[in-house]
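Input record (one chain):
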Amino acid sequence: MVATINTTPTVEPSVSERILIVEDEQPIIDLLRLVLEREGLVDVAEAKTVADALASAGAEPPALVVLDVMLPDGDGFSLAARLRQITSAPILFLTARSGDLDKLTGFGVGGDDYVTKPFNPLEVVARIKAQLRRSAASCSASDAGATEVFDWGGFRLCEAEGVLEVDGRQVAIPAREFQLLAYLCRNPGRVFSKRQLYRQVWGEESLGESDDNTVQVHIHRLREKIEPLPGQPLYLVTMRGLGYKLMPPNGVERR
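The corresponding structure, as predicted from the sequence alone:
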């Protein structure tokens, strides 16, 4: 079930971002395509299966992926994890799976946003455009000459290249986790609550427990990547009752 829309064209110019819609219901694809084109996003590709989505993303990397969870030949969560191996493009889940565990799983495998069905197509497109703006801003910062390299000894983060190295080896990292770690690296020793991190990294005000859990999942994923013993973190520590803190490089006690 989706809302009806006014199809009068807007005056926004067309842009070249390629949107990949992975959805097995053609009416939903057609509706999203209509609203996206109305907003100037005219390069829209579609895939109805996991296999088609991987082939499409591999042949021409998208700027953003809209991803259903329930697909004929697999699930969107597993597909998102595989897409993360070939692209850092934002992933927006659009699905009837509305449970908190489903949402946490979506963010945990690298999703950047999560919208449940039934949905308002105008809201979905607004979220898509917001993700594209953030992605473009990140690229612009790199193109402008961001050369910051953060070296914690055990791990090294290069913002300009979008690279994380752990013990000298490059580690794949989803865009949102990279942004979160970069923000913490720019503010070593400072304590942030979950809601502060959500506001700074996701660019929105936290709406409560679900968003707090999203931050917690991303912190857990980062620890799995950068910590020698994720259950006993050296770098990204919990300040009980306050939030999280990335220890300054000279404040890390080696074990």
